[in-house]
Design goal:
The complex is a heterodimer of chains A (111) and B (114). Chain A is an all-beta fold and 111 residues long. Helices cover 0% and strands 58% of the residues of chain A. In chain A, strands 2, 4, 5, 9, 10 and 11 form a 6-stranded mixed β-sheet that branches. The radius of gyration of chain A is 13 Å and the shape is globular. Chain A starts with a strand and ends with a strand. Chain B is 0% helix and 53% strand. Chain B contains no helices and 11 strands. In chain B, strands 2, 4, 5, 6, 9, 10 and 11 form a 7-stranded mixed β-sheet that branches. In chain B, strands 1-3-8-7 form a 4-stranded antiparallel β-sheet, with no helix packed on it. Chain B is globular and about 40 Å long. Classes of the chains: A mainly beta (111), B mainly beta (114). At the A-B interface, strand 4, strand 5, strand 9 and strand 10 of A face strand 4, strand 5, strand 9 and strand 10 of B.
Chain lengths: 111, 114
């Protein structure tokens, strides 16, 4: 059974810092991994999708990497802004019509 | 293009009642998945429908059911509501198991059971 862990559970940083969010999964037989952002009480917004054959994906200030063999992914946020404050969720797609989610990292960026 | 639409956004129900939630996927997407999100358990998979057939089901009691219509819109129903059913219910659509393009989620339905 696939299990996904995200570290840290919460993170508070001053504006402008670069930061890294970590995600690990137990079964390396995955199709892809997707990073989402969730604002309080809202739905999930997809940030980046990394296929199992890829090593990284970039979108603006966000960069996600994937090391499938070691079961790890990182989300790097450059030059953080208060608007980045949200919960970040990592989800693994093992191909059974379902995503397995981590519990998320709650990020607070203070001005 | 329009995203995933979930209705209603908020619901308040009494214990013992039943509730129906609706999800309209992105045009062209035939797969609709449902998830329950609670502070304690995080996001948990309920079920997935593809072309009106349930393809996968999570570990939830039979009080939770769903269906999909020919236009790919999906509904989930919860009967005999319990306090513990209070949660954010999220729907996601994809082309095919989210393998090529991933999943797109709706804004969710916040269900409160009193």
């Amino acid at each position: 059974k696939q299990e996904v862990t995200q570290i840290p559970a919460a993170l508070s940083v001053p504006e402008g810092e670069n930061l890294v969010l970590n995600c690990s999964f137990t079964d390396s037989a995955i199709y892809n991994l997707q990073w989402f952002r969730q604002d309080p009480g809202k739905g999930l917004t997809s940030l980046l999708l990394i296929q199992s054959s890829q090593r990284e994906q970039t979108s603006g200030r966000l960069n996600a990497s994937l090391d499938k063999s070691s079961g790890r992914s990182t989300l790097y946020i450059a030059a953080s802004q208060p608007g980045d404050s949200a919960t970040y969720l990592c989800a693994v797609n093992s191909g059974y019509s379902t995503l397995t989610f981590g519990k998320g990292t709650m990020l607070l960026v203070s001005p | 293009k329009a995203g995933v639409t979930q209705t209603p956004r908020y619901l308040i129900k009494t214990r013992g009642q039943q509730v129906t939630l609706s999800c309209s996927p992105i045009s062209g997407h035939r797969s609709v998945s449902w998830y329950q999100q609670t502070p304690g358990q995080g996001l948990q998979f309920l079920f997935e429908y593809f072309s009106e057939t349930q393809r996968n089901k999570g570990n939830f009691p039979g009080r939770f059911s769903g269906r999909q219509f020919s236009n790919s819109r999906s509904e989930m129903n919860v009967s005999t509501l319990e306090l513990g059913d209070s949660a954010l219910y999220l729907c996601a659509s994809s082309l095919e198991r989210g393998i090529e393009y991933g999943y797109t989620f709706g804004s969710g339905t916040r269900l409160t059971v009193v």
